[in-house]
Structures are given as C-alpha cells and as structure tokens.
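Technical annex, item 7. During the second reporting period the consortium partners agreed on a shared format for inverse folding records so that results from different sites could be compared directly. Each record opens with the tokenized structure and is followed by the designed sequence. A conforming record, contributed by the partner at site C, is shown below for reference.
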C-alpha cells in the first residue's frame, strides 16, 4: 500500500507534539529518527502510537547478529510499523533481525535495509571503504542480500526505484526520501524528485521532511503530497 511518511526531524517531544496537533482530521504515517529517539527515549514512540499514527522508526541498526536480534525484539514490542538496519552488517545479521522482530503470533513490523547512504560517494567507496565495485552495483548486491535474508525492501532514491524493482521484484518495497515540490527549495538534497514523479517511478512510500515540516501550512503541504503521490 502506497503512503506518504512525514520525516519528523524535531529536537524534542514538545516541538513534535505542537506539529502533530495541527493535524485535526488525519493521522499521517510518521518517521522518527535518531535525534528524537535518543533525546526522548522509547516513550515518545508509545505516546505517538497512542495518538493513532503509524511509525517508521529510522534507527539504522548495524551490530553483531545477536545484538541486532535482541534490539529488534524490543522495537517489535514498541509496536512500530516499520524499522531499518544497514545491509552492510551482512546477511546473517539481517536474518537474525527478522527473527528478533517476529512476534509470537507470526506478525512483525516491515523491515527495510539501507544499502549505501546517499552521503557515500564513489570516491569514498573506493578510497576509504576499499570497495572496488560501482555504487550502483553495490546497492543492487546489498538489496539482493536483503531480499534473500527475508527483508521487505530498501530505503533508496526514487530514481533507483525502477532498477531495484526490475532486478529484485515489484513486491520489494522502495521507501524513498529526496522529495521536493516543483516550486520549493531543494535544501541540502541533491538527487530529488516531486511526489508525482516518485509515483511514476514506482516508489512505494515517499519520506518527506522539510517540504511539510517547514511549510507555512504543514497540513496543506501534506495534503498536496498525498494528492500528487496517491492520486
Ligand atoms: O527534509 P527532507 O525531506 O530532506 O528529509 C528527508 C528525510 O529522509 C530525513 O529524515 C533524512 O535523514 C532522511 N533520509 C534521506 N536520505 C537518505 C536516507 C534518509 O534524506 N538516503
């Protein structure tokens, strides 16, 4: 199911709740990242869940398999809807993560892999990480590992959605940040697309931060995103 996820990059719960109070008639899907989670602890997740929102908890786990498994078990009990890890931790770590997330009744949150961060350049991959393959080959190989380990999809640029879907399968989710309205400020994002273009490229979920959170009317900006992306 396609949806728009708002990236709630707020420093504390007060700002977060002031923002959420603006949404009187809808309960948008929200992404909570490391900043808010580390500032407020797991209680912020419970409080937002109680308000009826779905939550993508973006903590990008990367550790030994056993530690990731036990941590995923905690995230699963927090009742988040989506979470993620770094595919660079390897297939065994990803398999353990799926095990940790799966509840006694067999249900679990969606689990996504980060392949290569968009801040990683080809030069950095080669000179610092000593990976000789191209960035695109690395992304595809890591995404393939994620699928084989039982994950549901990847976080990637909307421009990569068609390649990932062609190579790995239409049902493998692409969750895509880097979204801007045609007439808005790019900020620090470089490879960007509009919500409408992300839809054409086959993104399953778009993650939108500042175009909504910094808008004069965040509710109207969210509705505009939904209108363009979900149509
Ligand atoms: O404000 P903006 O729309 O740029 O926010 C995008 C969100 O998606 C931020 O929370 C950012 O950390 C996240 N993100 C990203 N690029 C990635 C992975 C995550 O912009 N490759």
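Designed sequence (site C submission):
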């Amino acid at each position: 199911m396609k949806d728009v996820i708002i990236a709630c990059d707020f420093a504390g719960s007060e700002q977060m709740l002031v923002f959420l109070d603006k949404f009187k008639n809808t309960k948008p899907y929200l992404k909570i990242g490391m900043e808010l989670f580390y500032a407020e602890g797991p209680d912020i997740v419970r409080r937002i869940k109680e308000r009826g929102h779905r939550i993508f908890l973006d903590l990008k786990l990367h550790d030994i398999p056993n530690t990731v498994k036990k941590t995923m078990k905690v995230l699963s009990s927090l009742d988040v809807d989506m979470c993620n890890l770094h595919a660079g931790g390897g297939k065994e770590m990803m398999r353990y993560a799926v095990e940790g997330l799966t509840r006694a009744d067999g249900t679990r949150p969606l689990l996504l892999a980060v392949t290569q961060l968009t801040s990683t350049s080809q030069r950095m991959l080669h000179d610092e990480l000593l990976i000789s393959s191209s960035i695109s080959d690395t992304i595809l190989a890591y995404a393939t590992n994620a699928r084989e380990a039982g994950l549901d999809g990847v976080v990637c640029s909307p421009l990569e959605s068609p390649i990932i879907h062609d190579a790995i399968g239409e049902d493998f989710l692409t969750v895509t940040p880097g979204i801007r309205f045609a007439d808005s400020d790019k900020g620090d994002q470089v490879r960007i697309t509009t919500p409408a273009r992300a839809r054409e490229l086959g993104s399953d979920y778009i993650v939108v931060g500042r175009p909504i959170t910094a808008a004069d009317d965040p509710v109207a900006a969210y509705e505009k995103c939904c209108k363009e992306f979900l149509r």
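The chain has one domain: 3-230. Residues 52 and 149 are 31 Å apart (CA to CA). All partners now use this format for quarterly exchanges.
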